[in-house]
Hints:
Elements: H1 8-12, H2 14-30, H3 46-57, H4 63-68, H5 70-78, H6 85-101, H7 108-128
Helix pairs in contact: 2-3, 2-6, 6-7
Bound molecules: protoporphyrin IX containing FE.
Amino acid sequence: MTAEVPTMYEWAGGAEALERLTERFYQLVTADEVVGPLFAHMDPGHPAHVAMWLGEVFGGPARYTAERGGYPAMLGQHLGKSITERQRRRWVDLLVDAADDVGLPDDPEFRAAFMGYIEWGTRLALSNSQPGATPPREAPVPHWGWGVAPPYQG
Ligand code: HEM
């Protein structure tokens, strides 16, 4: 019999773990000279909202859709921001630092799948944020899974 495969949300530690991650992440982001200026007018609820988004993506409850307006709302926050590749890369680096700081699981399977989503999502955010970009306004919230390497459960 095969053991039930947990969602990435469960493996990460659920909503609480993702909230710890985004709290730490935005502390690092706002203090950073490369990405900080983009977040100068950040809504104080932003870390909690991004934690909801990540939870929904990784197989948790659809709270971003229910409470924040789903994909169109997320997309709308990136349009026109003209994110540069240097800023995208710094955003990724700071998220990895935050994941280490708060003790997000660091097993190879989890981090590989987690970073797969982050790489994909940040590249889309950069492209959607360029002047004149016309990405689809409506799309489902992506649901990210383990891909080719499910979690090692002994
Ligand atoms: C996987 C990649 C990403 C995800 C999942 C993500 C997620 C989100 C979400 C869910 C929001 C809206 C939060 C709300 O409802 O209040 C948001 C806003 C925003 N994002 Fe992203 N984002 C990503 C990449 C990036 C990158 C690479 C940058 C810039 C380097 C960026 C800059 C911003 C900014 C400036 C806002 C608006 C913040 C504010 O003023 O409140 N995002 N993001």
